[in-house]
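Narrative of activities, Objective 1.

The group set out to show that a structural description can be obtained from nothing but a protein's sequence at a throughput compatible with the screening campaign. Below is one input-output pair from the validation batch, recorded exactly as produced.
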Amino acid sequence: MNPRTRRRRLRRGRRGVSPIIATILLVAITVIIAAVLYTLLIPLLGHAGTPLQSNLAFGTTTVHQPTVGQIGCAAGDYCWAIQIQTATQGVAPSSFSLYVQNTSGLTVSTTSWNFTIIDASNHLVAYAPGPQAGSSTGWTPGPGYSTDNALNLAMTLWIDTGSAHGQPGGNILYATGQGSWYGSIHTTLA
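Output recorded for this entry:
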């Protein structure tokens, strides 16, 4: 074999693929692998529960400034009454926890507050002292109810601030899913 031919073959063999094309191919292959893994793994990593936001909604919020007293709001206290607008698929007090934020996004202390759910006949469904409403196990059932009883449209959530002085100005009440429930909903306490 001729030495010149041999050198040419060696030079051609050393050239390979240009670095730019190699980089483009590497990026393209990485993107394709990432897309395939995303498509395969997302269904496995998704939520295995029920979305709170499509099964519970708060309706009209009414302010009750120092009241004469009733179930859910002690006499002389500043309270909010929030209608349950949507309640489907068995959403119950044990399905969510509650907390309040001010307009700056800071969590409001609800130590002296009480959260109460009453039915259309003014019967106590469940109640939770402020700090305990932040837990799905913080709810205590009313007579004849359990914390797993489903809410319905005839029910009202009462929030009693525990004093004659309210905190108006747009605080926001959040309900966050607990257990097999996920997501959150909110309403403004005007």
